[in-house]
Structure formats: C-alpha cells, structure tokens
Amino acid sequence: MNFTYLFVLIWLALLISGGVLLFSRGFLLARVSKTETSTCRRLSTNPNDEYFLTDEVVNEVFKDVNASAHLCLPQKTKVIILVVDALKYEFGLYKENVKEPLPYENKLKVLQELLEQSPDHARLMRFRADPPTTTMQRLKGLTTGSLPTFIDIGSNFASPEINEDNVIDQIVKSDLPLVFLGDSTWTDLYPRRFKRAYAYPSFDIFDLDSVDNQIMKHLPKELASGDWQVLVAHFLGVDHCGHKHGPLHEEMARKLGEMDAVIRSVVEAMDNETTLLVMGDHGMTASGDHGGDTDDETNALLFAYSKQHRFYGNDTGSDSEMLQQIDLVPTLATILGVPIPYSNLGLINFNLIPEIPVPHLNRFQTLLLHVWQNAQQIYRYFFQYALENKRTFNVDEMDRLETEFILLTHRVQTIYNEAAFKSFVRDLNIHLRDILSTCREIWVRFEPTQMLHGLLFSFLPVFFIFLLVNNSRPADYVRIFKAKEVFYTYLINLAAGVFGYRYYKNFSFKTEEHGVIFFTALASIVILAFHTLRHWASIVENWAAVRRFGHMPTRLLLFGSMAVFFSNSFVIQEAKMLSYLLAGSILVLSHELLRLSARVEFRNKLKVSQLLRSTALRLILASVLAICFIRFAYTLFRCREEQGNCTDFATSGGPGFSLKKPGTGKSYILAVFMIVVYTTLTRLYLRSCGNLTGNSANVLLARYGPTVASICAGGHVLLAHSSIKNIQRSHIDAMALVIYGLLLLQIVVVSVAPLMTFVLPPRTGNTVTINGNESIVPEIFRKMKRMYEGDDDVERRNAIPVVYGLATVYSSIVIAFGVFLALVMIVLLEPRASIGLVICVAVGAILLSVHGILRYRTATSFESCVQPTFTALVGWFLLAHFCFFATSHQTTLSQIEWRAAFVGRTTGLGQSNVISGCLVILNTFCGPIFFFCMYSLLSTETFSLFALFPNLIRSCRNNAGKADATTTLSELANEAVGFDMTRGELTLYEYEDVFLGANFKLAAQFFMLQGLKIFCAMLACTIHCRHLMVWKIFAPRFIYEALATFVSLPALIVGYLLLLRIHRAVDTLIKRINKTKVH
Amino acid sequence: MVSRFDQQKTKHQLFHVSLSLATILICMTYMQYRRNWAHLGSFWDSLVVPIVFIGELLKVVLARFYGRIEDGVLTVKQRQKKATYFTPRELLGGLTLQFLCTLLYAFICIILGAPVLGNYEQTFVLALLMTLLTVSPTVFLLGGGGALQVCFCEKPDFVTKCEDTALNLFKYNALGGILGAWAGSVVAPLDWGRDWQAYPIPNVIGALLGSALGNIYACTHVLYATARVYMTKKRS
C-alpha cells in the first residue's frame, strides 16, 4: 500500500519540529554551568594540624586580606536542616487574638515559643525563592547558590545529578559526615554523597503521610547517634496536602501540627553545639499549587535556632527580615567552615550564624574574613564567567563593577575597627547585590543565531508546504512524491545529519544538535524547493484558479488566532479569544451554507410550518447549539493570575485562601452524565450506520467496550474525588487501568482487524425483500447492491453478498477509536475538565455535520467533495486548540495538571517517568491530540452523512423543475456532484488515489496551520524578548505551543496511519468479496 | 450603459447615505460632548438610541419621498401593500417583530460572551441598537410581514423600485453594524485600562462605526457608478 505519503508527513513533521527545537534551545538557553570547584585551606584550632590558627597566622592574614581567599575559618557548629516542602511564610506567623484560626494558622506554635523564650537564639525570616518554584529547581538553588535556569522546570520527574559545585559536595570533601532522610529528589541530585540516606520517592502526591512517617521513625535514632555533622530531613506531607486539599483543609492543620511536634522533638534532642534550620523550599498559591513566581509561591519560611550560642545581631549589615534562598549556601558554608561553592552568588547572612569566637581573632575580624571570602568568591566566579562568555555582559557595566571592586579591595586593607567594618560591609553588600541583579538580568539570555535558524527552518517548510502541497491537486501527489525519491530524501538527510554531527565546529555551531538540525533542514529545504520548481507549472495553474480575496472572513479568523501571540493581553485572555474565533468560524460556515443553499426553499410566501421543517433552520439551530456549548465552556475555563478577580490566585495571605476546588457534587454528576450521553450517542450513531452488526473483533469491542469504559470512567470520577475514606486505592486504580487496557486493546484490534462491517453470506434462490426508506440499514443494504452490480441487475441480485456498515466503513472505525481515546482522556482529566472535552466533541460533531452538508451541496466533483472547505479546516484547527482551554487548562507553568500522572498508578504500578510524562501530556494536550487524530473525519464524514440523509441533496439542485419522481437518487447525485455518491464512503475506495492524496493534503494543511501558529509564537517571543512580561506570559505561551506542536504533528500522522490501515483492510475485503462473486 | 443610469435613484442613494453618515456623526458628536463613555450602556441616560431611531425614520421618510414620484406606475399588489401600511395589524406585527428581534439579539449577545447574570440593561441597549440598525428600517419601510418576506424569501413583487433601492442600502448598513459590533469586542481584553473598554461600549461604537463603514462602502459604489457614467458620457 501507499506508505510514501506517510513518510513524507513524517519528514515534514521532523522538519518543523527541528526548527522549533532549535529556536527553543536558543530562546530558553540560560546559564552555562561551570564545573570548577572552590577549595580552601582550613584553619584549625587543633595544634596538630597543618594550618594551626595562631597569632602569627592571623597577623600574616591581616597583612594582606586580599590573599586570604583560600582560607577557611573553623567549623562553628553542627547543622540540622529540616526542609518542610511548601512551608509558606504565613504558616509560621503567629497571630494573637485569633478566635477561630484558619487550618494553617497558629499551628507551628513552637516557633513562637522559642522566639519569645530566647530572641537572640532564634530567628524567623521570610525565605525568598527564585522562580520557578518547583522542588527540584529550589533544591538546586538551595545547594549551589546560583540562579535557576528556566527550562529545567519540565524535568521535575527525572532528576539528573548536579555537576556544578555545591555545598553538599563541599561538605563531603571536608570530611563532614552527612545523613539524609526524606524526599528521594535529594539522592537523585546527590547520589553517593550521604553517609546514611533514608530516601523515599515523592511519587504519589496523594499520599500525605508515608514519607513523613518514615522520617519520623528514623529521625530520633539518627539524632541520638551523633556521628554526623550535617543532618538533612525533607518532609513532603505539607506540599502533598496542598496539592491534594489546598491550604484551607483540616488535613493541613493536622500536617502542620505534626511538623510542630517534629520540630519540638528535634529541639529537645539536639545538643548545644548544633544549629537548627527549618525551612520551606517554596510557598503555595491559594489553591495549594506552586511553580510560578507570585508572592504566594516565592515566600517560604526560614526558622533558625541554636540552643547555646547567640546569633550575630543586626549590626552586621545583614537583612533580618528576609533571606534570599541563594544566601543560604554561603551562610551554611560559613557555619560549617567549608569553602563557599564556586558558582554561588548569595551573601552570608550573619543573622543565622551562631556567634562563636575564633581564637586570636576579634569579632569584627572574624566577620571581615567571612565577608571578604564571600566577596572574592563571587568576584572570581562572575569575572571568570564574563571572560569565558564574552559579549554576555555590557562592557560599560563590567567596567563599572570592576572599578568598584578594585576600590573595595584597597579599602579592605585599611579596616581596623568596627565602625569602619560596618560601613565597608554596607558598601560591599550593595556592590555584590549589584552583581547579582546584573546576572539575573542577563542570565535569561538568548542565542540569536539559533533563534534565527529556528525561525527560518520552521518557516521555510511551512512556506513550501503551502506552495507545493496546498497548491497541488490530490491526484498529483503520486507524481510529486515517488517512493524512491522519498527514500533518497531520507538518505540525503541522513548524510546531511552525519555531516553536521561531524563538522559542526567548523561552522562555529555550539552543539552537535545545532549542526545536525541545521544541515538536515538545509538539505530538506533544497529538496522541497527542487520539488516545487519541478512542478511549478501545475502549481501556478492551480494557484491561478484560487479566487482572489476568497475566504476572506476565514482568513481574518486565522489571522486573529495567530495575532493572539503578539499581545500579552490577548495571551492572557486567549481562552475567550479562541471561543470568539471558533464561534466566528461556525457562523461563517453556517452563513455559507445558508447563502448557497437555503434561501431557495420558500420562493414566494413565508410559511412558518415550512420554516420549522426546513433543514436550514435545523442547521442554524445546530450552529446556535454549538455556540451555546462554547459559551457554556466559559464556566470551565481556568483563570490566570493576571486576570483580575481570579479565585485560583486570590490575594496573598489572610482570608484570601480558597479551598482546593472541592468540585461540588453537581459537577461530578454532570461529568458522569456527560460521559454516559457521549458513549450512548456514539453507540446509537454507529448502530444506525449498521456498524455494530456481526461479530468481528472490532465490532464486539465497539459494542461492549465503551459501555464498560464509561462505567469505569464514571466510577473513577465519583470515587477518586469522593470524601469517602475507606475505599482501597487499588480498586479505584483498577477502573482507570481497565480503560487504559481497553484503549490498548483497541489499538491492537485496529492494527490486526479494523473493519466494523458484517458480510452476510449470499443466499441463492432466496429473494431478499427490502423495504426501502424505512430505516437506514436497508438503505445501505440496497446501495451496496447497486454498487456491486453497477446497474440494477435483478437476476444477479441474490448472488450478491450483503455487507452491513459499508457506507461508513472509514469513519465508523475512526469514531470508535475516538471513543476509547476520549475515555482515556476523560479519566485523566478532572471531572470539570472532562465535561469540557465532551462539549468540544459535541461542537466538533456539529461542525462536521454542518460542513458535511455544505460540502456535498456545493461540491462539483469527487475531488472537491473529499476536500473540506478552508473554513471547516480552520474551524477544526481552532476547535482543537479551544479544547485545551475548555478542559480547564491555562498556559501558565504553575497550572500544569501533575495529578494526571498518578491516575491509576498510585499503588506503585509502573513508576516509570516516561509513562508519567505521557499521561500528563495526554491530559494537557487532550484537545490537539484528540481532534488531530480524528482529522480524517473532515473528509470522510461528508460521505457517510450523505448516506444517512441523502434527500438533503435534492433541494439544492432541482429548482429548475428537473426533479420528477422517477429520477433515482444516484442519478441525482451524479448530476449534482459528478459521481455516484449514494454509495457512501465506498466511493472513497473507488477513487483511492484522490482520497489518499486528499487526506495527505489535509494533514499537510494542518501541519501548515500548526507550523504557522508556532512560528507566530516564536516570532512574538523574538520581538518581545526584552518585554517586561516575557518570562511570565510569552515564554510559557511559547513552551505550551511548542509542546502542542510536538504533540499534534505525531497525532496527525497517527490519524493518517489509521486511515491507511482501514484503507488496506477495505481493500482486502473488497478483493475477497469479488473473489467469492467470481467463483 | 448610459440609458441605465437613473438620476433619481442616484440622488436617493446619495441622500440616504449622507443621512446615515450624518446620524452617526451626530452620535459621535454627542458622545464627544458628553465626554463620559459609561453612559453609553444605560438606556435612560444615553441619547444614542433615540438619535439612531430618528435617523432610521428619516431614511424611511426619504424613501417615501422619492417613492412619491413613481406612484403612478405601481402594480396592484404594490398598491394593496401601500394601503395596508398604517393599519393596526401591520403596526402591531412590526412592533412584535422588532421586539422579538431585540430578544434574539440579546440572546446572541449572551451566547457570544455577554454576562448571563447581570448587565441586563447594557445587553438590552446593545440589542436595541442592533435591532435599530438592522431590522427596524426594513420594518418601518415594509411592515412586519413584508420585512419577514424580504428576509427569508426571494424578492417579493410588492416592493417598489425605490423601496428596493432603500433596502439595498439598508443591507450595507445592517451588515456593517453586525460586523462592527462583532469586531468591537476585540479591544475588550486589552490591558489599556481605559473606561471605554467596559462591556457594551466597544460593541456599541463598533456597531455605529461599522454601519458608517458600510455606508461609505455603498457610497463609493454609487459614486463609482456615477463617475463611470460621467466618463463614458464625456468620452462620447
């Protein structure tokens, strides 16, 4: 069969994706991580050591403070770090006189008690995180002291080891034993560093307790053992509680109460030479999620306590209110007396450092040594980085910073008293913060060549698809893409790829990837240009036939959907924009239909009864219904922070918190109802088409599968979210697993025996009487006959086998496949969102039927009939993207539905990250995946609709009085569209070249639209790359669009593959029937 | 070519178009004079709806004025139609039709994104304006039944030539109004923080500007035809 088109599609998809990938590498590129590490000579208080701290040494040091960078002062205390995931600042504040505290208020009483008891020994501070506020990014920031990169955010499921210098490595290198308990993200980031590690996976976010319980079990033992210098415990319960219930649930009160008890017990058990640090790695929004950069998410809590030693006070110039998270690294290094990691940018905060006098040193001398060490480390890193990455920083800016630093190096020599030290520290801190802000600005830096190449190589394929595919006739593709040539194309691409891989350095590309993509894309573009030139004559001919200013409204709609990317307010309101445009395209479609065919129905007098019976009114009502559905979907949209009055992001702190949307019982019931309605309607449709007759595998599956699946989906929706506690998790999971299994079964069945037809063996000598027009099945029956004979040959009628469901042979399988796909998505989506999916499917069905009728009323030949109108194409495209928003998604990074990764897998079944990723992608992009897999319906539905409502064609053509009762339907159809359409989708088989070509063209057109869209997203990012909102709005939008592209191109290919498989099966069926006929 | 040039018709068209443009100009002046956009959404406080109403009435009067000339050549049906123009039945029918249209427009506004609960007055004003711009002129000219027939059937035979001219121009007006109101919503999501971005105002202004554009388009057509006739005359 014809797999050439498939390979052409794959080639084009790779081409576009390559361009997008290249752009994203250039655009989202951030810091180049350095692998250098810091070292130092540790001054010891032990006289046997090499660097014993004596007066002479001190004098030596203060002769030239600038040379002291390689020295470390001795360790001050041991450290216990309790990380409580998502411990928000507000959780730790004590509010007096609150009668009825909210569940998260006043639960950590121990902090307040310690603060009151000994204010000099305890500190409570705001702990400001840098976005993105996901746990792994935060851990990286907390241990390396550097600013996080932007793109890492997606890799939260697969933690790679850190290769940058960090405080954990420094601790290990200084032979200080580390013990770790809790979240296994730590052991993923730092394998083999810990003396003892009790790591537990953070996989199941519904599980509030098991990790915490394990920590609590081992913690007392570890505290007592005392063979460690640093102990880290990472609790997950609070974060999981936020994700599951939100901060306002009573579970939160319980979890915080537990944390309170843990802190109490640790305070009790710790000795005098230990510093306790309790910290949250990030906060949470009002709904309990995190990832973004709102104040709610970035403000975590830090609490420090030391039993015996006072902390340094406010006079050291450090902020006592707020601590940036990167400042923790140098502070920790100072307490432990280890070198500050090489790439740290934070400052030591002396409010957290226990004041332990160092022999032979003054207080201010100690401080000065610490401060200056920190300053030199930052200076070394910053200028080394600037040297290696030229043109990263502004030259004038660099000069200014360098001069300032040199001034400071002179000044540091002349500090002999506290007052001078204080003013020096103040200036130094300002200077170092200056460097930090410079870095922060620059490290979201772009790679212009990669961006340019990305833009170019995603635009050119789109352009050539437009020229070559869009302007050729479906039957011509056989000539354009020959199997052999496609094979050579792949070979050339391979050669170009190898060339790029080998010689990328010669062309001054930074990575192999860039070289490979550049050269393959270049080769492919040349091949495409060659194809275009070779067929230029026919292209020009077809292009000339296109009406000027045709489809103007549709083009405007398309333009609107592309223009969205260029304005931040449109991106924010994109959900509404898309529904506006989608409603527009439906209106345009129904307007075309009315203009072309409906007005003729009443010629002289308007009669209400006639109006009510007319198809036009029904179609208008259907369109209105579709628009009502779209309007209803408004209630399912998720809002984003930038929109005012968004309850998901209510004002920070205080009573603005909202409970995790409890998803009222009503919406669950509605969701279940919708699922049932959806499966019932598709079943009815399939049955009325005769596709549920017989007992082939796919028919059986389509008959019983959706029922089982919808029961399971309904059960899952109701049980997974119910407040009933004592249902076993595995029972709920089983229902989701059944649905997954059914989809897999469907895939297997489709690839083995896809047909949903039933061949009635021919009975000889037995006249089969058919009562026409009574129901649809006999209708099809009759049609099948006519088809096999070519004419109504009565004698041979009985020898002909009867095939049920042949008129919808293509679309029925696609629809049945879609049901299983949709049910999997429904079980992954939350209940509200699954309503949205069903609504979108309904809108899609209406779009298909309106378009189908329009198409066969206006088509003049098979070729035009099998190709959908441009408006329908754009409508379908908009619908696919609208579905993203209708299923409660939003293009912000903190609103990704991670929950989907755990549907059906909470009992520890298949903990692979790949499956998690797939499930989250399926959830997030359910719209594009579903509608692009089903895209072939756009061309096949026309025919099955005609088979279902054949009389609709009559009214449009017979106005000249041609129609008399004797003309048969097929003649009418012949007259109307130039071929016999009454055979339904079997006609498609007869014109297989055109049909396959048209579907290839359709897929390529969707490629073109999607490519155009992602190109616009990229262009918008390029134009706005210094926009205030680029990281908050444009970059996330681009990331979502890029992912949508990576997902929807394969989905289209899957759709085409499905069609090819069905086509092949139809081919064998017909051949078999013909064979039996001959015998 | 020359013979088909109808001076009366062209005059009528030009007057008609300038009347609509003048109406919209007056509306704009009025808005400018009020300096406060918020009143556009309220029914009692704003003069836009009455101004448009008067404008549409004047256009019908204009059509009647030019129709006077061809009184002599009317067919029987046209005469019958004219006789029933002021009967209560026709009047009632027309009013009902307009009321239903207003409701329909309100419904359309809501399904296209207007708030379902609340803002009824604004939606009503917008719906009323849309009715005035689209359906009302036809109803004023032909009565309720006639308007329905014109909308849903092929051209009925009771329409006089001059009414036909007016209907053609009404079509531009209505199309422009609908598209303008539709396009007006585009500015709503922008974050400019202007007071005129509140719900009905962009749509109301869009409808007015849209109908103005429609009229200008019609006007250019008429002028173009006139100019061509003029040129051919001059050449010959």
TrEMBL record, chain A:
This protein's record includes keyword Membrane: yes
Pathway: Glycolipid biosynthesis; glycosylphosphatidylinositol-anchor biosynthesis
Gene Ontology biological process terms in this record: GPI anchor biosynthetic process
Cellular component GO terms, alphabetical: endoplasmic reticulum membrane
Membrane topology recorded in Swiss-Prot or TrEMBL: Multi-pass membrane protein
TM regions (residue ranges): 451-470, 486-504, 516-533, 554-571, 615-634, 667-686, 734-756, 802-828, 835-854, 874-893, 914-938, 1002-1026, 1038-1059
Pfam families associated with the record: Phosphodiest (PF01663), PIGO_PIGG (PF19316)
Keyword Transmembrane among record annotations: yes
Location within or outside the cell: Endoplasmic reticulum membrane
UniProt-recorded name of the protein: GPI ethanolamine phosphate transferase 3, catalytic subunit
Native species: Drosophila kikkawai
Gene: PIG-O
TrEMBL record, chain B:
Subcellular location: Endoplasmic reticulum membrane
Recorded metabolic or biological pathway in which this protein acts: Glycolipid biosynthesis; glycosylphosphatidylinositol-anchor biosynthesis
Transmembrane segments: 12-31, 37-58, 91-118, 124-152, 172-192, 204-227
Membrane topology of the entry: Multi-pass membrane protein
Keywords assigned: Endoplasmic reticulum, GPI-anchor biosynthesis, Membrane, Transmembrane, Transmembrane helix
Gene Ontology cellular component list: endoplasmic reticulum membrane
Keyword Endoplasmic reticulum: yes
GO annotation, biological process: GPI anchor biosynthetic process
Main localization of the protein described in the UniProt heading: endoplasmic reticulum
This protein's name: Uncharacterized protein PIG-F
Species per Swiss-Prot/TrEMBL record: Drosophila kikkawai (Fruit fly)
